[in-house]
């Protein structure tokens, strides 16, 4: 089982769940049970207590960061005498398959939109920037889907550059988990939000440095704050297999699903299939590309077997 070392967390201040919960300062804002059900992904154990003890303090911290950045921008604009358009505050959310990135991103979007200084919060997943299956098939990359080379990184960089330049509107491609492919000619419109949350597997990856000395931007260069969702390998595998088993009766059961062929597998065959996929693809990607980006995050949320956050590590300023 992959484990962290003390050296990994030396730049961070570590909080237990109880310590982190005290930072909310009795803020009355929270989410209703119906909202939590809507925001929660399959198998996430999200409940009111985790909202109030983990995500409410985090949203409060982020709202302070956003307010400080907005004040700095206004001060610079006055100093320079310019009329530059405001730049959205961009938050990156990364981590393994099955760790709960989507749920975390949606919860933060819901909470941050309720703070007085950030009325507009948008969310984009990097799945839309995957190459279409036809391209992945042609390049023999279908078994590398989710690896850095399976993304149209240049398109993602152009999108983030336009966001940071204050252009409006900006469009992001849409991905369908049902058909397991990018949806042709369908786009999400992003119109100059106060905060943009970007969620994906490899959002914190730096990539290779150029040999010719020319500056090459990385996706993470556009982030003002970054979050990594962490869990031990054995726990992640367990969640992945459990989710696979459950999806036989939900998403896989749809005849239009890319994975419809798995819907009638027996429990034993489904476990074997999911374990094989995990070991051949997701575990390799986790070890080679995802976990190495963890020390680049501003904040690490460590989950236990219950799928709830047990520890928070915040990078010291």
Mean pLDDT: 89
| Helix-strand string | EHHHEHEHHEEEEHHEE
Q: Beta-strand percentage?
A: 15-25%
Report the end-to-end length measured between terminal Cα atoms.
31 Å
Major sheet description = 7 strands, mixed
Count of DSSP strands = 9
Shape: globular
What are the segments in which pLDDT stays under 50 over at least 5 consecutive residues? 1-6
Biggest sheet strand line-up = 1-9-8-7-2-6-3
**Backbone structural class:** alpha/beta
How helical, in percent, are the residues? 25-40%
User: What's the Cα radius of gyration?
Assistant: 20 Å
Helical segment tally? 8
3D structure, described in words:
By secondary structure, this protein is α/β, with parallel strands linked by helices. 36% of the residues lie in helices and 18% in strands. The chain has eight helices and nine strands. The strands form two sheets. A seven-stranded mixed sheet has the order 1-9-8-7-2-6-3. The chain has a two-stranded antiparallel sheet with strand order 4-5. A hairpin with a 4-residue loop joins strand 4 and strand 5 (181-190). Helix 7 (233-247) packs across helix 8. Mean pLDDT is 89; it is low at 1-6.
Summed up:
The protein has 317 residues and is an alpha/beta fold.
Keywords:
single chain, 36% helix, 317 residues, disordered N terminus
Please render the helix and strand layout as text:
Blueprint: E1 12-16, H1 17-21, H2 33-39, H3 48-80, E2 89-95, H4 101-112, E3 121-125, H5 133-138, H6 153-164, E4 170-176, E5 181-190, E6 195-199, E7 225-230, H7 233-247, H8 267-290, E8 299-303, E9 309-315
Parallel strand pairs: 2-6, 2-7, 3-6, 7-8
Antiparallel strand pairs: 1-9, 4-5, 8-9
